[in-house]
Design brief:
- By secondary structure, this protein is α+β, with helices and mostly antiparallel strands.
- Helix content is 18%, strand content 39%.
- The strands form five sheets. Strands 7, 8, 9, 11, 12, 13, 15 and 16 form an eight-stranded antiparallel beta sheet that branches. A six-stranded mixed beta sheet has the order 2-3-1-4-5-6, with helices on both faces.
- Strand 8 and strand 9 form a beta hairpin.
């Protein structure tokens, strides 16, 4: 592995202006806000990526996601491939709406590892910091973060950062590396052209391994290509594996052939489908989910529209789970056990999520709309 690379991805989460990008810069010396519009507006719009060197010397990946409610689509795309999360809460602001929604999304995506960072402690006194910590712990009660560390820091002054680095090291060691088993599966989150090289795609590898010279398939359209070269954190490698941030230079592919939401896979291993067999879980605070309800589906980096076909009932009540099928408007490529998110249109709110049981299902003929 390049530069003592360890296959592990940590994602940020939290409300806008709570200091996620500043925190990542303090940890990595990399500013993930690379777009002119992000600089102009002072907010993260697109996904950002940075290598982070743990105290042990191993290098892992950090994905920085937007905190604004308008960019939940990007947040879900970034969170879909992470192994753990840093939930960031500003000490001077406390728990806010996107703090809650991001935590709900992370839970629905099946993430089990992480910690909470109370940022901006330089802006508050001890009493207000204690209130912010108590506020955070109340939110986290009953979630996968309830028994995980809560670490006060200032990304501005650096106070608490060394303790945070040690906690990230311990979290990574306890979680362990992602399995390399299975056929290669890389949801694309960026695609761009480099003069003299051609089309490059980036993403977090979910399954398997990829090697220079491998034949791959760009799904869902099934466009065949060959891997010219691979980079992990800017360093050329001959092999990349599940759990790594991967950039792959694809031969014979134009930029018009690939986009965010596509998947680069091992050849002849996956099928595009408009019918997914799933287990769906409705959030406790949501309205009942009705048969044939039209919702936005987020799976991997894919964002499309789907109808929820309930197989044995007319509705799912808040907090309940049910077997269902997702009938999508566009072809979707997913792997077994992938997690997904469902959001309503108006207002744009996360209401449900679940796990894919069969990525290419068949609609029962006796179940009507």
């Amino acid at each position: 592995m390049a530069n003592n690379e360890y296959p592990f991805v940590i994602g940020t989460a939290g409300h806008i202006d709570h200091g996620k990008t500043t925190l990542v810069k303090r940890l990595t010396d990399i500013d993930c806000d690379r777009l002119v519009e992000e600089k102009k507006r002072g907010m993260t719009i697109e996904l950002g990526f940075a290598p982070f060197t743990l105290p042990s010397g191993q290098t892992i990946s950090i994905v920085d996601v937007p905190g604004h409610e308008k960019f939940i689509r990007q947040m879900v795309a970034g969170a879909a491939g992470v192994d753990a999360v840093m939930l960031v809460i500003a000490a001077d602001d406390g728990v806010m709406p996107q703090t809650r929604e991001h935590l709900a999304i992370l839970s629905l995506l099946g993430i089990k590892n992480g910690l909470t960072v109370i940022n901006k402690i330089d802006l508050v006194d001890e009493e207000m910091l204690e209130m912010a910590v108590d506020d955070a712990k109340s939110l986290l009660a009953g979630t996968f973060l309830s028994d995980k560390p809560v670490i006060p820091v200032s990304a501005f002054t650096g106070k608490g950062i060394e303790e945070l680095k040690r906690a990230l090291q311990q979290m990574t060691e306890k979680a362990g590396a992602k399995s390399r088993k299975g056929a290669f599966f890389l949801p694309v989150d960026r695609a761009f052209h480099i003069s003299g090289f051609g089309t490059v795609v980036t993403g977090t590898a979910i399954n398997g391994e990829i090697h220079e010279g491998d034949e791959v398939e760009v799904m869902p359209r099934g466009i065949l290509s060959k891997v010219r070269s691979i980079q992990v954190h800017g360093a050329s490698v001959s092999t990349a594996t599940a759990g790594q941030r991967v950039a792959a230079n694809l031969a014979g592919i134009s930029l018009d052939d690939v986009k965010r939401g596509d998947v680069v896979t091992a050849k002849d291993c996956f099928t595009a489908s408009k019918c997914l067999d799933v287990s769906v879980r409705l959030l406790p605070g949501a309205e009942p989910l009705k048969h044939w309800q039209r919702l936005r589906l987020h799976v991997g980096t894919t964002d499309t529209v789907a109808r929820v076909s309930l197989l044995d009932r007319e509705q799912v009540l808040p907090g309940e789970s049910s077997a269902a099928q997702l009938i999508t408007e566009d072809h979707v490529v997913a792997s077994v056990d992938s997690c997904f998110i469902l959001r309503t249109y108006s207002p744009l709110v996360t209401v449900a999520g679940g796990r894919i049981l069969m990525p290419a299902g068949e609609r029962p003929k006796n179940r009507q709309m």
